[in-house]
Write a structure and sequence with these properties.
α5 packs across α7 and α20 crosses α24. The chain contains 24 helices and 19 strands. The longest helix is centred in the last third of the chain and has 29 residues. It is of the alpha+beta class and 715 residues long. The protein is 41% helix and 13% strand.
């Protein structure tokens, strides 16, 4: 029989099947013992008796106790308590830890097993609890029930050799359950703020980011000087800092921009965007030196990148000598050629984007393209994470492949060695030696940049969807080019422009007033006879940053009027393009900075002591007296008689300049020496005899940018 049912009377067959010690195991033997001992019985309807009635006997008390014990053993051995989730809805204190939740669940399971035992055995609560613990210790309980008993025990109580709770502990679980507090309480940390905490944080939360030891030394000195309460130990300070939140702890140590790197953020999705819906652009100063395209000196170029947000494809890029609106213009032109006109351009607040060339409502590039420019918040580079990350992926990794890399993570010794090697090569080339420059040249660098952009567009991007690689059969992320091609296959058509529209579209425009058929743009004067009837009218003038020979004139509505030629109504004039003006301006500033450094170095070498007030005048071997004594002697001095001196006229003779031999004269080495030489020749006049080499140099020097720069400085 699998289960023992507790009741007051049993038939002979049921008693025999229980296999209780001291009780016969056959029906006839049970009948015989009941008759001999005179057990009381009742007759109930059923099979096996006369007249459809059978006898059910009331066993003695000893046998009934054995029956109850047998029922308890069966109940504990076969019971499988179901898991009940104990949560905040039936617990007064919230469950904070996993350990609390496990103990609460185990105690609930123990109580269910206890209730089952009471129902099957008829034992009262205390006896059932004692029986439950005894059977678990004797190995007669289900292993799952034993594990729950061990988990339910509170380790803070008395030690237990077998890990099982006592009878009193189980009765206490019943009390906890009635009060809704089955989860054990957890000792909380003392979160009160000590009196010394604000003073210490005043030394610790500084932008210099001092260590705990450094801040503690300053704090302890002030705290002791004020004769406040006992100075806490550094270990007390460290325990307090462990209780402070990470962001709160860095307040003051990090600025408003840096602290964003540890604060929560919002991830922007781009699933609904189509290619060319949003372009994002930004400039990056290359982390390696290359040869300057004009003079070959080492410098770090500025790279402007344009990415499509939907596909992460690098649709445009440009490389320039410095950050400027023209570099941005060239990158956008490249982007429109490769990807079409964007609906939105998302950029920062740099001068390359916030200028009239880009944003003017009448002549700006954005208005002519029909593109809306959106600027991110200042000091919020996280909002433009796509373009910021591309700098690391494309350009920083590319710079590490060049010999001129000088990034912040470059070994200092190796960086210094590369620097010295390139400067040594420059010096050797100036001296006429044939030495290879270790830095990459400008044409090679431009080709290298295009290669890196192509590699990026053909590499899997983890922000794009996954596909099965047709070559390997493995799952991988799509490349930007694959994402773009997929959009085109689904019907996307980019908003492209023809080559004839592209050139005038990307010509910068400015507003100028027509005066007697003339227009002035950047100091140059342009003329067209077709502008005669537009006198004093304001027109839109487009220009080419590389070609100053002509400009294109449009009316306020954008209709083309004519082309105006440089100095079309005057004699020959030497124009200066916008690029030349920019180079000269940058060269002026560079020379001015070098002059300041030169003056500072000379002052440092010679020394410039401060003027001090001298109370006495001391000239060795002549005078040694105070200023008051010197003034008194000056008053008592007798004026000397001055006699007339005969002035003799000396005839002046013109100095004959020395004409240097052609073999002895050479071109000066420095810019200042060349300018001085030209001034000397100019002062002597054109009639002075000179060698052919001097005459040729004098004519060609006047056409250089260096000559024009010195000429402006001396004007």
């Amino acid at each position: 029989m699998n289960a023992v049912i507790l009741k007051s009377h049993y038939d002979a067959e049921t008693l025999a099947s229980m296999a209780i010690d001291g009780l016969p195991t056959t029906r006839a033997a049970v009948f015989k013992r009941a008759k001999s001992e005179g057990w009381k019985f009742i007759e109930v309807p059923g099979k096996g008796g006369r007249g459809g009635l059978r006898k059910e006997y009331l066993p003695p008390a000893k046998i009934m106790e054995a029956i109850r014990h047998k029922a308890a053993q069966k109940a504990v051995a076969v019971v499988e308590p179901r898991r009940v989730k104990v949560g905040p809805e039936n617990q007064i204190p919230l469950i904070e830890t996993e350990t609390q939740a496990l103990k609460a669940d185990a105690r609930k399971g123990v109580l269910l097993a206890l209730q089952t035992l009471m129902n099957l055995s008829g034992y009262p609560l205390k006896k059932a609890a004692r029986t439950l613990v005894e059977m678990a210790r004797e190995g007669q309980a289900n292993p799952q029930l034993v594990a729950m008993l061990k988990m339910a025990r509170d380790e803070r109580g008395r030690p237990s050799a077998d890990g099982l709770p006592s009878e009193r502990s189980i009765l206490r679980f019943v009390e906890y359950d009635r009060a809704g507090m089955l989860a054990p309480k957890k000792k909380e940390r003392d979160m009160s703020v000590p009196d010394w905490a604000p003073t210490f944080l005043g030394y610790f939360q500084r932008p210099e980011k001092p260590t705990v030891e450094h801040a503690y030394r300053q704090f302890a000195t002030e705290w002791a000087a004020k004769q406040m309460a006992t100075t806490p130990s550094i270990w007390q300070v460290r325990r307090f800092l462990d209780k402070v939140g990470k962001v709160t702890l860095e307040m003051g140590r990090m600025g408003s921009n840096e602290i964003k790197s540890i604060k929560p953020f919002i991830r922007r999705t781009f699933d609904t965007l189509l290619p060319s819906d949003v372009y994002t652009a930004d400039g990056h100063r290359f982390d390696a030196e290359v040869q300057h395209p004009l003079h070959g000196q080492p410098f770090r170029p500025e790279i402007t990148s344009v990415l499509d947000v939907a596909t992460r494809r690098a649709v445009g890029w440009s490389v320039g000598l410095a950050e400027s609106a023209f570099a941005v213009l060239d990158a956008l032109r490249n982007a429109v050629i490769n990807g079409g006109i964007p609906a939105i351009l998302y950029v920062d607040n740099g001068s390359g984007y916030k200028n009239e060339l880009m944003t003017d409502t009448g002549t700006g590039l954005m208005a002519r393209l029909g593109t809306e420019m959106i600027n991110s918040l200042p000091y919020n580079s996280q909002a433009r994470g796509i373009i910021e990350r591309s700098h690391q992926t494309i350009w920083v990794n590319a710079a590490k492949q060049l010999p001129g890399y000088i990034g912040h993570d470059m070994d200092r010794q190796a960086k210094l060695g590369t620097f010295k090697l390139s400067r040594k090569a420059i010096k050797a080339q100036k001296n006429g030696e044939a030495v290879a420059m270790p830095l990459i040249g400008w044409p090679g660098f431009v080709e290298f940049c295009q290669q890196k952009v192509d590699e990026y567009n053909n590499s899997p991007h983890r922000s794009l969807a996954k596909i099965t690689d047709p070559a390997t059969g493995r799952r991988r992320h799509m490349t930007p080019n694959e994402a773009w091609e997929l959009a085109v296959a689904k019907g996307f058509v980019p908003h492209t422009v023809s080559d004839d529209e592209l050139r005038p579209l990307f010509r910068p425009q400015v507003l100028r007033t027509i005066h007697r058929g003339e227009i002035e743009v950047f100091g140059n004067r342009y003329f067209s006879k077709y502008l005669e009837e537009f006198h004093t009218d304001q027109m839109r003038v487009g220009y080419d940053i590389h070609d100053p020979e002509k400009v294109w004139v449009y009316d306020p509505d954008g209709r083309f009027i004519c082309t105006a030629e440089l100095n079309g109504n005057s004699r020959e004039y030497m124009p200066q393009s916008v690029m030349d003006r920019g180079r000269d301006k940058r060269l002026d500033a560079k020379i001015k900075r070098l002059d300041v450094k030169r003056d500072a170095a000379i002052s440092e070498r010679r020394g410039a002591p401060a003027l001090e007030h001298m109370e006495s005048v001391h000239i060795p071997g002549f005078i040694n007296m105070t200023r008051d004594e010197l003034a008194l002697r000056a008053r008592d001095a007798i004026p000397a008689e001055v006699k007339d001196v005969e002035v003799i006229d000396v005839p002046l003779t013109t100095a004959q300049p020395v004409v240097p031999d052609e073999q002895e004269w050479s071109v000066p080495n420095t810019p200042q020496e060349r300018w001085d030489e030209w001034q000397r020749m100019e002062f002597e006049g054109a009639q002075q005899d000179r060698s052919d080499k001097q005459k040729k140099w004098r004519q060609t020097y006047q056409a250089t940018a260096e000559f024009r720069m010195y000429q402006r400085k001396s004007a």
